[in-house]
Write a structure and sequence with these properties.
The protein has one domain (2-108). It has four helices and no strands. The chain has helices at 2-25, 29-54, 59-86, 99-108. Helix 1 (2-25) packs antiparallel against helix 2 (29-54) and helix 2 (29-54) packs antiparallel against helix 3. It is elongated. 13% of the residues are buried.
Amino acid sequence: MNEIGAIILFIGSVFLFLGALGLLRMPDVYNRIQAGTKASTLGTLLSLLGILLLMPGWWGKLIILMIFIVITNPVSSHVLARAAHKMDIEKSNRTRFDHYAEDKESEKK
């Protein structure tokens, strides 16, 4: 069980590293938010699962942490992206669609 826990913990660490790399490589704030949120959520959940397998006595605390992360990470990234959009932070030239701006324009009509 310790080997499986260590492997899952390592995979979670790899996802966290890739998320950090995504923050450096993505062209604009919106893509960075997405890369950071998805990778950090999965990486943290896998890391906590690995710790759960290594330390089974901590299962209650770790499950609560997992639930908290699953709920708060998507909400916080949505709030950050919406705030960035309302502040008119520019998108990358490679961004093709802005559904939020399209929705605002259709509401004005």
